[in-house]
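Handout, section 4.2: multi-component inputs.
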Amino acid sequence: MNNFTFHVSTDIRFGKDRLNELPEVLNTYGKHVLLVYGGGSIKKNGLYDTIMQQLTENKNQVTELSGVDPNPRIETVAAGAQLCREHQIDVILAVGGGSVIDCSKVIAGAARSDQEPWDLVLNRSYQGSAIPLVTILTLAATGSEMNRGAVISNLETKQKLGVHGPNFLPKVSFLDPTTTFSVSRYQTAAGSADIISHLIENYFSTTADTDVQDGVAEGLMKAVIKNLPIALDTPDDYDARANLMWASTLALNGLTGSGKGGAWSCHPMEHELSAFYDITHGIGLAILTPRWMLHVLNEDTAPKLARFAREVFGVQESVPEIAARMGIQKLYDFFISCGIPMTLPEVGIENEQHFEEMAQQAVAFSSISKNAYVPLSVEDVIAIYQDASTPSSYM
Amino acid sequence: MNNFTFHVSTDIRFGKDRLNELPEVLNTYGKHVLLVYGGGSIKKNGLYDTIMQQLTENKNQVTELSGVDPNPRIETVAAGAQLCREHQIDVILAVGGGSVIDCSKVIAGAARSDQEPWDLVLNRSYQGSAIPLVTILTLAATGSEMNRGAVISNLETKQKLGVHGPNFLPKVSFLDPTTTFSVSRYQTAAGSADIISHLIENYFSTTADTDVQDGVAEGLMKAVIKNLPIALDTPDDYDARANLMWASTLALNGLTGSGKGGAWSCHPMEHELSAFYDITHGIGLAILTPRWMLHVLNEDTAPKLARFAREVFGVQESVPEIAARMGIQKLYDFFISCGIPMTLPEVGIENEQHFEEMAQQAVAFSSISKNAYVPLSVEDVIAIYQDASTPSSYM
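Output:
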């Protein structure tokens, strides 16, 4: 196990009817609030009204930034930072999924920085101060509500990049499973694929003998695999939504990654799909993950892939390579059963036109060619994109 | 899933050679340090010298409180609180296992409180301020290094009681697996039994549909069951010690208990064994847990006990009650294989003289008779103590 620091001080308020605690939380930081949200689903489901009533009664001065895109854009970050300066914002209240929270994190930093927002992202690490951030999560997916990372897109340069900062960590996050009842089947499945991907990225690392982290990851994967079908069938099943929501947070708060080394594999490859084609992040990950697993399956990796198959999907086969293939098939079939389109053409990527450029960027903007679980060259990435262009079978 | 707040801000510094960070950490709080430790094992293994060198170079003014007992006594708490007042202590540095850390937590509160120390414990909850606490963990067991609880004994009144306080949470905890290399076989096994017991207490709760918490608990149990035999065979196996250490912390930092309801069962029963006979806490838990499982096995509880058997021990049996019994047997056999004495006479409790009084106290000082997984009467507790008096078989 590698050395690590685990210091995740976000105050999680989990459950129904917790928003009456919001005024007290915001008052810790001040009265001037920047309210950040996305396309307006919070206006349809009543959450916006609930929040505004709390803020009005609490005599907050509210500035709004709405319309944050699913792959949040650097232009939105710049606009938000400008609003923070103009209105002397004391605290940012992000209401939405990972995109809204990610966007808010970089706004929080950019508002207090002399750097141009895109330069801040290009640095990949921001050590400066940030405006305090409070979140109200409405989608179980990215885990951004309890970590220090953010992903921002620049459609002009066709780049989608992650940036981390110690002060990006939300101070308080409200997790109310009922806010996810109205999330569509497609977005629910995509969010869960994102959770599973985070767990898999950490699970297959270059560090051996990390049974604690791996056991936690297996437990979280099983919780998602059990509860996602329930939530798809019964969107207002509270416990299913609660399990998905809490799994999303724990999947990427450091718990399964701390003490392990190496670069992630599928996220850099997916970021290029999103950057070039603006597809749904979780869907891209679901499409790529089984193909990546097959691509890296060899004598050395078979035992860990077989452990995944046995512990997560209950595969009984004793020969590691066969068990591994059975596990990959089960993951693929699980995604299919949840209604996820499992080929690139199904999400509008119908030819190989950009595969080479995307593969080059995936390698250039990450370290997958150097220290991934199995290092991937530009050719490897192209092969995985090609494999993802048609339906697959692993047995 | 129940509503919960999860806010565990302890800064964990995990790994080898992290103690060079100690001066910077202590300087956050001040120069006057109360150094609390136990029976002197840290003098034998060199840890004391390493710490004192750091503190001397950092120009700390150090007051020492040594000799904290395995079941820490209220008299030691009172003495520590007095030292803090006399020497205007800024920060307490607890070096040891759960006993030293628990004792330090209550010292930290008592030093800033007008209450008599034992009154503070009897209240079971302390909402006042406390001196900041930094810990250096040397035993994987109680999880005290990352939570707000403490257990203190009063041998005069034959009581061993838990007390919680928001300000008992350690600010920073150093977890260096190498500090546990010299822990004896017996204490290593006892510590791991304590970890498993914490996970089992949370696992069997009155709240259903908590797959995230239960999946995490299963993963941590499997990590302990895999790594304890390695650590017993090879005491300086770094990864085995690292997995046990990190499992101990995560087993009781709120991760597996938040969102679940009900009272613990085996801890209140064990606390009476320790209070009356001063036995090793983890050993008492190992002895009681399989007996308790059998005692509560019925048609309603069989499915969860069977899940435990299948997920933790890989039992394949499909009939729930049989699977449950197989799981209980496997847990019992595991403890035996680790050298744990599994009957009360083997730890010096040779007759039933105090069973009734102990059972009455277990019920009086906890809520096991009201809201445990299966509520337990005085008669139930006596029956479990009686069953623990001879070797058991569950199949």
